[in-house]
Amino acid sequence: MTNPWEEISLDDYEKHMSLDTVRQLQAMNSIMQEQFAAYPVETAAVLGIAGGNGLEHIDTDKYRRVYGVDINADYLRAASQRYTQLSGVLECLHIDLINEAEKLPQAQLLIANLLIEYIGYGAFQRAVLQTAPRYVSCVIQINSDEEQWVSESPYLRAFDRLDEVHHQMEEKALTAAMVEIGYSLILQESYPLPNGKALVRLDYQKKGEKVINLGDCDNCKHRFGFKKGHTLCDAFPDGVPYEHTEKDVKSLKECNNGISYETKEINEEQYLLCDDTAEHWLITHANECAEFEEMLKRIKSQKGFKRKDKS
């Protein structure tokens, strides 16, 4: 019997995922931009590539090879046709991850978004071990209603057979499976969706690798931008070197150019009365800085704060 994903048309899938009541295609695109930029790597493998949503964020100055893997050959053809500018970097591979994990190439970064729920923890462990990445970045869907895990839409019938392969996901269970094969959790972020569901990004690092302090540079007052996979700051205006991110930058007397880490000031009014995006930003970054966490507590203690008039 064929895998249900081989029967779902890309048109139905993308139209469903991009509906205003779902908005997972848009959320995933934004997340993939962050994933491709996050780590000092030159090769990546994307499992469950579908039509290639998010591949436009591949920096060809940074990546020499990105493997796009999917069980649906039509999806792979569409991705190849859409991203001809990635010729020589993007290589699409038709692989059944449950039965053919041994065909996976090795890569320094493994990305698996909304994929693990359709192959299970065990198959994902085998895929990780075969790929042998330094970093794993994945997104799972958390469902408030475990019976209705596919959102209502005019395209719902296209997904009728997915019950055959779907596994309910839990953050703790996934992390336990990753720890079992030698990977440690280094980042967890939640992205609320309009239908009461949520996407959760979980990043893991192979044990023995130097730890990347992801939040430190972002929380420094000298940071002013991001370009081609590197944070831009006053100390490194052309981009913070990857090796610098492996240091405990908060303890350094100097990062570069006579400049050291300084925690940026937080304007509570800026976040307290703004829109939902800022509230979400606080929620997803609360674990990075004690000041953010305290601010978030104050926000949640207030009743019905409203969007501030920007005029």
Overall SS class: alpha/beta
User: What value does the Rg take, in angstroms?
Assistant: 20 Å
The CATH topology of the largest domain turns out to be: Rossmann fold
Kindly state the percentage of residues in helix.
25-40%
- Per CATH, the superfamily of the largest domain is Vaccinia Virus protein VP39
CATH hierarchy class name of the largest domain: Alpha Beta
Number of strands: 9
Low-pLDDT ranges:
268-289, 302-311
Number of helices: 10
Beta fraction: 15-25%
Estimate nothing, just give the exact number of structural domains.
3
For the report, how would you describe the main beta sheet?
7 strands, mixed
What is the architecture of the largest domain at the second tier of CATH? 3-Layer(aba) Sandwich
User: How would you state the average pLDDT, rounded?
Assistant: 81
Strand order of the largest sheet: 3-2-1-4-5-7-6
